[in-house]
Design brief:
8-stranded antiparallel beta sheet; Beta-lactamase; hydrolase activity; Beta-lactam-related; 10-stranded antiparallel beta sheet; EC 3.-.-.-; Lipocalin; alpha+beta; hydrolase
Length: 469
């Protein structure tokens, strides 16, 4: 089932209708190929929303179709929205990128004094703080949930020394949300409405489930084949890291803000051009340059496709996945929101076609196993790697290596009931392997490396995990 609308300029021209119909057909075909229950696609080109289209089911169990007005969870794309507000406060002099967070949030206590005194706003925005990122403790539904969450961080062991490496950090963005609340005196949900949702004229963007109930809302689907998830969303304290729900039209209005140097269509400056540029400037080279991008900016993931800069972000919640990519040279932004199945395969196929046809740009190829791999000495890789929320072990299996993984945090019961999974590891080059999840077409890199002090780490799923045994 599909639903499509004409481009937002409402020209109703034959060209605009044909464009929408073409991408509606491709979305439906590729969603079916990748077993994606429902998807919502928007394309912004040269300042115009040229395509809005949806396919499949918002909730297959309830028989609710996906439409262009259906809210999907954008997950960690929310981090760039939180970053944008943080950078606006930098513009206003309320925050400093390189001042310790504790200097503006005196209540902050982290696991040790070096972490407490060392973590800056820049570290939070680039995932280099050392705070263990996957802390999903539910601190309730009250407006004080971020304050309560921040207090818990005193008991969370660091994942790595400050600025020693990059490790994707949800907890750091919840902390950032608390910083924004403290310096403005405005609770995070309302701050997003005040600083972004209302100025951008967003009609279908919310942060709370009771707000989402006003609209048709998608449910995530888990497993193979995808089945409706038993839980709709994450705990409220995850808000600044990943609780915005929206539609592609609204997400692309946010992307347009960044393409326009921080100014709305009406000419209101929400962010300085200097801060927009800083967000898109390389800050940190990634230990794993294959999965999401090769560098991190401030909030944005950064990459290069066919010689052209690309910035964007992905999002993943309970059975929902979101993708946003911006190609500034082509004045092109693409948003895809989905709710289960091989969403990565759909993203790669669909965005690859869109960027070739509209920008003449070839998407960077994904990493794959070496066709003729050199013999691998397993000794440097064998052992246990562990951080909060996950335990991984590299073992020998059938003459090669395998990665065993068990999720151990609060979400394990929802996502996989804490079951251990095992992936065959295929060599790519020394220190780099790939694995593949059942029911998916893409390869996930596993990169072994060491910090400057020699401590061995495994970078997997954008997280740095230390070797502990």
């Amino acid at each position: 089932m599909t639903d499509s609308t004409i481009s937002a300029d409402n020209t109703g021209s034959a060209d605009s209708t044909a464009t929408t119909e073409h991408w509606a057909a491709r979305l439906a075909e590729l969603s079916a190929r990748h077993s994606v229950p429902g998807a919502n696609l928007g394309i912004l080109h040269r300042g115009r929303l040229i395509v809005e289209t949806a396919a499949g089911w918002a909730n297959s169990g309830a028989g609710i179709e996906a439409t262009t007005e259906t809210l999907f969870q954008i997950g960690s794309i929310s981090k760039v929205w939180t970053t944008t507000v943080a950078m606006a406060l930098v513009d206003e002099g309320l925050l400093d990128l390189d001042a310790p967070i504790v200097s503006v949030l005196p209540e902050l206590r982290l696991a040790d004094e070096s972490l407490t005194q060392g973590v800056t706003l820049r570290h939070l925005l680039t995932h280099t703080s050392g705070i263990d990122g996957d802390v999903f403790t539910d601190t309730g539904r009250g407006d004080d949930c971020l304050e309560k969450f921040t207090a818990l961080l005193a008991d969370v062991a660091p994942n790595h020394p400050v600025d020693a490496t990059m490790s994707y950090c949800n907890a750091g963005f919840t902390l950032l949300g608390r910083v924004l609340e403290y310096v403005t005196g405005v609770q995070w949900d309302e701050l997003m409405r005040e600083r972004l949702f209302r100025p951008l004229g967003l009609t279908h963007t919310v942060t709370l489930p009771e707000e989402a109930l006003r609209f048709r809302a998608a449910l995530g689907h888990l497993g193979e084949p995808p089945a409706p998830s038993p839980q709709w969303g994450l705990m409220r304290s995850a808000g600044p890291a990943g609780l915005i729900s929206s539609i592609p039209r609204d997400v692309l209005a946010f992307a347009r803000l960044h393409l326009r140097g921080g100014t709305t269509e009406e000419g209101t400056a929400l962010l300085s051009d200097k801060s927009v540029t800083a967000m898109q400037t390389r800050q940190v080279a990634l230990p794993d340059p294959y999965l999401l991008g090769d560098h991190w900016g401030l909030g944005w993931m950064l990459d290069t496709w066919d010689g052209h800069p690309v910035y964007g972000h992905d999002g993943g919640t309970i059975g929902q996945s979101a993708f946003l990519r911006v190609l500034p040279d082509a004045d092109l932004a693409i948003c895809l929101l989905t709710n289960g199945g091989d969403t990565g395969g759909l993203y790669r196929d669909l965005f690859g076609e869109i960027t070739r046809e509209l920008a003449g740009v070839t998407m960077r190829a994904g990493i794959e196993p070496a066709k003729d791999p050199a013999p691998v000495d397993p000794a440097p890789y064998l052992g246990v790697y562990e951080r909060r929320g996950v335990r991984m072990e590299v073992v020998t299996r059938d003459g090669g290596l395998a990665l065993r993984q068990r999720n151990t945090g609060p979400l394990a019961a929802v996502l996989d009931a804490g079951a251990e999974v095992e992936f065959a590891m295929h060599p790519v080059e020394p220190g780099v392997f790939v694995v593949q999840s059942p029911g998916t077409t893409g390869w996930i890199p596993a990169v072994f490396y060491a910090l400057a002090d020699g401590t061995p780490y495994l970078h997997f799923g954008a997280r740095a995990t230390p070797k502990v045994g």
